Amino acid sequence: STAASAPSATDLCGAGQAWRYSPLASACYVLLGGGAPRNRSFAIASCSAISARLPETDSQAAIDGLRLTLNGMGFGGDELWLGGDNSTSTSDAVWIQRSGIAIANCNAAFATVCEKPVPKCDPSAISGYNPGTMTATNVTNNKAYYNLFNIGLESSLRCLPGFFRERDSPTATVATPTLSSSGQSVNTMLCGYNMSGSAYSPVVLQGFVEQCYPIRCATAQLKADIRIPNVEPYDSQITASHFNYSQRFYVTCNRGYVSYKNTSSITSPVECGQNYMDPTMGEWVPFDLNTCQAVKCPDISDYINTEQAVAYKADNRINQKQYSEFQSSSYPYYPNRVYIKCSTPGYFFDDRQFEKTIGCDLLNGSLIEGAWTGVLGTKLSLLKSAQCIEVSCDTDILIPKTAAGLAMLESLNYKSNAVISFDNGTVVNTNASSVNNQELMPYKTVLTFFCQDGMDTGTGAPIALCRSSGDWNLSSLPTCT
């Protein structure tokens, strides 16, 4: 007869003892003497007398199987002897139910559990099973075990990473085979056994096994319309028509770029991976092919006075890509230029410049480390100490502080009086010739001059406004005629 499930301990282990069969460990166990302690030599002899041995925990499945079997026995003790080679001439392994394997003196006394190994199914007997493309997966107590062909265990025959079945495609129309005569569904197997008298032999019970095919990535696209960015020519690296899953080739990054896997290297991999949406398809990794990433420069805040100034935009000096104030995380990378301004509106730097510019480049002598440099007239060494001051306009530009300035006012046919109106509401009446006594006028200051009686500029009274750009709205004062 064929036993397809719930193996009998009597069939597999024999009669005469209270054997318990563990499918995980592929072994039968029995507790001797009700768990009465005995030394190691006595324990070995006791197991040998019933054609058994001390338990051998040579795999995680064997450990878990032993633990589950002891729990099923209601084992109330703590320690029991294990088999295997002696650790020393005077000590050997012992199982501690609460913590696992330990070492104990051979003359100590512990409970004795005997183990009798049970033959397994031969995986080569599974029709259609290919261990090079598949793995047998069993789940016991919510834990996965792989390639256990033990009597009583049912396994799913799944594709290994890098392989797929036709039905895995989201557009597949593959019909599902019916249950096998043994009741197994597609891509599953159960290790059962046949009895002949009192003897048994393992037998494979299986459903139809679908083949697994390799996932592949075509290289033609990398030589044509889809190119890997920021790398040196690489066509010589990909002479094959395709790469299988997990196969890779290496490229050399352009200047200013390093590997996304290792920022200390300018050599970076491109690997054949699996498409997330369609697991039957290969996909190059990284998915956007940006295997070389831009070198990063140090934190910008180390180079500017963050209490007064802020980096507010950037651009790539090679491809002119722009980054707004909301993309500041993209600023500190090669080959970007970063623009810095005073954080308070109406202020500029103490050299009367509204903007400073720094560029991310490579540190001298390095291919992998970034460093900031001053560009477009910015001195990096002075940037940290630069102060922001209120925007103002230079009165000397309108009326030079020279005799020629006084003569100019007369030639413009202005009256001798003028009015200075400040943004805070203060109004100062003064002599026109004294307007330039204050060299710098604050932002929004208005200078009002008056034409001699009967004269006009043609555009109204001569008025100069200090603009937010730090210059006057007039390049020169108009003449009254």
Automatic annotation (TrEMBL):
Keyword check for Disulfide bond: yes
Residues covered by the Sushi domain: 420-481
UniProt KW keywords: Disulfide bond, Sushi
PROSITE patterns xref list: SUSHI
InterPro entries to which the protein is assigned, alphabetical: CTDL_fold, Sushi/SCR/CCP_sf, Sushi_SCR_CCP_dom
Keyword Disulfide bond: yes
The protein's name in its UniProt record: Sushi domain-containing protein
Organism, scientific name: Macrostomum lignano
